[in-house]
Give the backbone structure.
Amino acid sequence: MQDVTRVVSRYEVLRELGRGGMATVYLARQSDLDRLVALKELGALQGADPSHAQRFLREARLAGSVSHPSIVTVYDFFEEGGIPYIAMEYVARGSLRPYVGRTSLAQIGGVLEVVLAGLTAAGKEGIVHRDLKPENLLVSDAGRVKIADFGIAKATNRVQDGPMLTTRGSTIGTPNYMAPEQALAHEVGPWTDLYALGIIAFELFIAFPPFGDTDDPMSVLFRQVNEPIPALTDLDPGIDPRISDWIAWLVAKEPRERPQSADAAWDRLEDTLISILGPRWRRGSRLPALPGVAAGPPGPATPPPRGAPSGPLTEAHLAAFAVGPTKPLDEPRLESTVPPRRPQAATAPPAAAKPRRRRKGFRRIVFMLVAVLALAAAILGRTGGGSQTPAGSSAPAGASSGSTGAASKSAGQDAALGSVPQSQVAPPPDASLASQAKAARMLASQYDNAAAKVARLQSAQVSGSPGARLVSALRRTAKAYRSAASAASAGDAAGYAADVSAAEAAKGDVKTALAEMGGTTSQSSGSSQAPSGSSPAAPPSPCSGDSTSDDPSDDSCNP
């Protein structure tokens, strides 16, 4: 446990973490909750105008109103001895500064993603940070950054009808990261923080800020206003031009030429990172613990109670806790355990592994698809919009003139299975186009519903798998039927016939994909088209065929 140097309110100060021009940050322990915090002391306001301390506390409350994983949490703000304090979340690895010039593209992308997410959250509250820099980006033990020090932030609108927190015309910030409009004390907004973030990104790649060769702050501000930021590709040709262009977009001199929101900036950067590093680039985006950088202290241990003895334990210390020998409880329920009344049955040998059974959800979807195909054949047969042999054309090759009934039945089975007809599609008469349009729309809806159900299967979510091809074929069939319905509604008989032919071809793909997923021809053939004038055949029972293909949990399949 570290020694306590002093106590401020309910915080025990342990050591100094950092010091700036206006504030000093200490590592402290909050005694009532026994947790480590970063305690910021604004010593520069001690003895100054009391209104300065009040303004600081108002700004601290404003910062505390933003809650986001990318922003350091503010726990408390108070005043003691005329000095304002802020107690905030302690981030163990310190600032981003040691990582500058030592990070990969994926790690830089991870930093920028987190900061842009935090700026988006602050922008929704109307808050501009105004002093983004590596020192205000803290690295957690998880390798992610958090934005700190919104204490000098300025609201772009009035907060609770109160006065603006920072006087208009004043300039607060760090010259190397300050936007031109901020240097000129003009209006600032989310675009101002994006300029500073562009400078940080520039520095992460190049290891120094654009105008880092100038020591005088006023000269740096002058260059921020008047000189363009050098292109990254001019300084390091190995940097991808798309990254250089993105940073140039953020550091444009005119605010209107920059992204107007952090979301817009991230959308473009994310596309670039994916195109360069691939969709899994985040796997390498965490910042590692740097060698030679002091790690944060361990979490606080619960302190001993007041008045507890110090030093090594002695017999005298242990005597205070001495108690008499433990006596057994006179409780029948705590007696020794007796064996069960009935002997346990002999352990049966492990059952032989059963063949893997098809999932019930897949089986039902197969039956649903067969029913949809049968319904399509029945509707087209009833309305005259299915596969027909035009007058005067010959029967398909291999069919004898004496087997007309068998050929008709075979054609009905092909329609139910979704196979491509061997004959051409004849345009329906104009008088039946209205009924054809209605039938085609209904079929399109059925195939859309079937595609939606199949798409929920896990196997259908793998690109190029039979399930994915089945979904694609179902959707193409639905699209062809919708097109046929539109053509029929417009009176275009030839277009209707062509679209129905396209639907039949797509149904052949449905059959093929269904067979690859495990559907068999015997299952499909049970839904062949009924003869003219009869109803379409019902889909086969889930328990028909070999019982080993049924799910054992389905009681309806048991004799």
Observations:
- Residues 378 and 465 are 30 Å apart (CA to CA).
